[in-house]
Specification:
44% strand; five-stranded antiparallel β-sheet; 17% helix; alpha+beta; 1 helix
Length: 87
């Protein structure tokens, strides 16, 4: 068995809009040389990430982060989470 640590990439999230009435949070996420815009429809548990370039790298870890933290996130807030992948 290899004892090498898993690769890690820091993902930086900024919340730009939030509406509890509409059930959504919008923002941007950056990791390595990639940047995406996202919309999290938390009542439907639906995550939309744009553009498509590199989306497969961030969609699942961003979704887990949002599910775990969505009620703690505020517009204008900056957040960080670790992605267990090398971008």
């Amino acid at each position: 068995m290899s004892s090498r640590p898993l690769p890690e990439t820091m993902a930086y999230v900024r919340i730009t809009q939030q509406s509890w009435q509409l059930g959504k949070i919008e923002g941007e996420v950056k990791a390595a040389n990639y940047q995406w815009q996202f919309q999290w429809r938390f009542r439907q548990r639906r995550l939309i990430v744009r553009p498509s370039l590199g989306r497969a790298l961030i969609q699942e870890p961003l979704g887990r982060f949002l599910e775990r933290c969505d009620y703690q996130l505020e517009p204008g807030g900056d957040y960080v989470f670790v992605v267990r992948a090398d971008f």
